[in-house]
Amino acid sequence: MASSTLTTIFLPIALAIIMFGLGLTLTVADFTRVARFPRAALLALGVQVLVLPLVCLGLVVLFDLSPVLAVGMMLLAASPGGTTANIFSHLAGGDVALNITLTAINSVLAVFTLPIVVNLAVSGFMGTDDSLGLQPAKMLQVFAIVLIPVAIGMAVNRRFPEFSERMRKPVKIASIIVLVAVIAGALVAERANLAGYLRDVGIVAVLLCVLSLALGYYIPRLAKVSEKQAIASAFEVGIHNSTLAITIALTVMNNSALAVPGAVYGVLMFFPAGLLAWWITRRRTHAEV
What we know:
By secondary structure, the chain is mainly α. The chain contains 13 helices and no strands.
């Protein structure tokens, strides 16, 4: 697994365009409403920061992954929710404002939690005490991809509401097209190595995604959180920032093998996430009939 133009340039640009489209659907009131109902945010953050690393640890031990792949999976589990979570939440009718807020908070928390989780994994699985430093520029990149395009979209929505209303459906369709194009490009670029990657960590990556989505949805629902916020929580908890995990593996830790779980997850997670979004949309449609 090597860094490529697709992962370092085109994917962030594509996500920035998509996030602008999401910003067209948001207002400041969405964020103030989240502040009035903090339970959903606290539950999602608790599952993301505390529960998921333990779930991932159980999976890598159960499937007896090699030390380097075990550390790579822990790196992925400790990564904050990805911007793709906002897209799926948007398509499934979730509380996108909650998604964006969680992404921002999680990105800040990851500065402290990600090095702790990964350093413990390195020590436990590889028998070393190598330190992991997360460069501030990497976190600024996450913030830039998430917040700046959304802020621009919100500004357009506030200044030109009629234009924003007309653009929402086309941008939503374009978001799906961009996602499919990026996935297809990633598959083509890594086609020679894909079979080996899938064999090594495919099952573990899928199980991590499925369990993350389930925990992110059902724990808030059990706590009487609204359906829209539970949907947002499910995708925020269930979809990790695999691009960030790959970047840290390749640049900060300088170990291409550590990037394999993030690469495999980055492709496979679209299937359970897509099925969940389809199921939620189908259930809502039947309920409205």
